[in-house]
Amino acid sequence: MKTIAVVIASLIAFSGIGHAADFIAPVKEIMVATKSNWADNNSDWTDIFDASQLDRLYSHDFVAKYQAAAQFPAVDDDGISPFDYDVIVNGQDACPLEDLTMAAAPAVNGTTEVTVRFRKSACTDAPDAKDTTTVRFEVIEEAGQPVIDDIVTENIETQARDSLKATMALIAKGQ
Known about the structure:
Keywords: Signal. By secondary structure, the protein is an alpha+beta fold. It has helices at about 1-15, 25-40, 50-55, 60-70, 165-170, and strands spanning about 100-105, 110-120, 135-140, 145-155, 160-165. Strands 1-2-3-4-5 form a 5-stranded antiparallel sheet.
């Protein structure tokens, strides 16, 4: 009996059945780049939406919406981004990110929400310097891999959640 249990456990492990995908992995990669982008180390800016990132880290639906929005570039140095701000820090300016945390909630209807929190203004004397920014990544599984399907920021003033996919759809409509 014990041998059968060991064989079944081995088959499950070998086949990948019961293996939970690392839903934090694509979010972690984006946050490592974002943290580096805002660090005081004068490193090159990492585009979290370059072609290699889009192909590996984002869902097909997200990529389609990004590519549609990219037809309407914002004013920036390279003229290809549909955004004129950093979509993770939700602004054009930030300090080195501090107190960064990531946590994944249990999946609901095939979507795992990974909540990221950080302080983006700690180096300033602004009244909100100690405030924590919250970004929620909706991660799904496509072709057996966890991918980001949406990035949702919380608007501190309105307490509303802003979906990046909804923003990209508006940009693609010329709004």
